[in-house]
Amino acid sequence: MKAVEMKKGIYWVGGIDWDIRNFHGYLTQRGTTYNAYLIIDEKITLVDTTKYYLVDELLERVSSIVDPSKIDYVISNHVEMDHSGGLPRVMEIAKNATLVTAPNGAKGLAKHYDTSSWNIKTVSTGDKLELGKRSIEFILTPMVHWPDNMVGYMPEEKILFSNDSFGQHIASSERFDDEFPSEIIIEEAKKYYANIVMSYGMQVGRELKEASGLDIEMIAPSHGLIFRKHVKEIIDSYVKWSSNIVGKKALIVYDTMWGSTKKMAYALQDAFEEKGYMTSMKNLQNNHISDIITEVLDVEYICVGSPTLNNNMLPTVASFLTYLKGLTPKNRKAIAFGSYGWGGQSVAQIEQYLSDSKFDIKLSKRLLYIPSEENLEELKEELKKLL
User: Fold this and answer.
1) Residue 67 catalytic?
2) How far apart are CA 239 and CA 208, in angstroms?
3) SS3 sequence, 117-159?
4) Is 83 in the active site?
5) Catalytic residue flag (residue 145)
6) Which among 105, 178, 232, 324 could bridge 148 via Cys, Cβ 3.0 to 4.6 Å?
7) Is this structure's pTM higher than 0.85?
8) What confidence category does residue 244 fall into, taking pLDDT thresholds of 50, 70 and 90?
9) Residue 213, pLDDT score
10) What is the pLDDT of residues 261-270, one digit of tens each?
């Protein structure tokens, strides 16, 4: 397991998680990496660690460059355990190291690990850590996406250690964006933004504003490929995603018992397409919620449909709406729909979720048993009048 030199004396020393496919509910079909970076200067510095079960990989890579006990600084940009899980082992080996983190980082780490013997230095926005020929300037980025988050900028090498921002869940032996298909990197970065960062669009906007004054040649995120060729492209993508810019698109998400709600979904699709909208149909029996969420980023309409089962919407629909509500995309229009046999509660329940999520509900429609062609035509005309 070799360290990978990013710039002279600066190395990627993280861990590759080839097998992970579920990251707290987020489907990671391509696995992931937990990136850590080793800086060899007058002060030897490690930026972040890995999940606990990959810390041996990290230590082996560090050992290929320097004795880990010689580390002077360990920077913790984020408490979450996929980045801090290896800290106890590292701090045990690097007994003289100072751990550098945000004030909320120090509090958070103490709630996860026994930090009583650690020498901890807290930093705030604008603070600089001198390493010798190089330095790291810190910017606190609380709630992107934990309270302790911060990023570090190395002006001498023009590297932004961006923490979770600009990350992607990709396991790969390649380390840089010019060694891997760029369309896959952007696809996974978009999914990552939608599932991890979307709730914090305002904070991301502030972070981008802070970063706009930096001369950046390389972005070193906490997951996935390191950007050195497509730096402008990924920053532009983040500006777009965090701005809630939508296209003339409709996302139709549904589940169905006997096909009646599916008939309604396709009638809505016909209406959208007749009005010039791009559409995407997502049956929850065949699509994972974390994949569907990626499409929420740039759609004007989100339509959600479910029949009624035992006085409720179907569990798959409830799961999707719970996930959607937590991520709170802004400025979207919504439609609730579904068929029913007697109670018919599902559509009102969907409507409540969409309302709680602050969506602008434009139409709510339920139809009894199997919709007739006349019913479906009426539904289409009703929607077309709104578009």
Assistant:
1) no
2) 7
3) CCEEEECCCCCEEECCCCEEEEEECCCCCCCCCEEEEECCCCE
4) no
5) yes
6) 105
7) yes
8) confident
9) 84
10) 999 999 999 9
- Per-residue pLDDT reduced to its tens digit, 169-182: 999 999 999 999 99
**Chain centre to alpha carbon of residue 243:** 16
Of residues 358, 34, 18, 78, the one with CA closest to residue 223: 34
Catalytic pick among 192, 200, 238, 301: 192
288 among known catalytic residues: no
56 is catalytic: no
Q: Which residues, 6 or more positions from 293, have their beta carbon under 8 angstroms from its beta carbon?
A: 191, 194, 195, 198, 323, 324, 327
Q: What are the structure tokens assigned to 135, written together?
A: 């330095």
Distances (CA, A) of 41 to 103, 118, 132: 25, 22, 6
> 132 pLDDT band (50/70/90 cuts)?
very high
Per annotation, catalytic residue among 24, 183, 373, 374: 24
Active site residue 24: yes
Which residue is catalytic, options 17, 34, 73, 78? Answer: 78
Q: What average pLDDT does the segment 145-173 reach?
A: 95
Instruction: Note the pLDDT tens digit of each residue in 350-376.
Output: 999 999 999 999 999 999 999 999 999
b/e string for 143-159 if b means 16 or more Cβ within 10 A?
bbbbebbbbbbbeebeb
The catalytically annotated residue of 17, 82, 148, 351 is 82
Nearest to 258 by CA among 315, 308, 333: 308
Closest CA to 314 of 371, 370, 260: 260
Tokens of 147: 């309270």
The span from the CA of 210 to the CA of 205, in Å, is 9
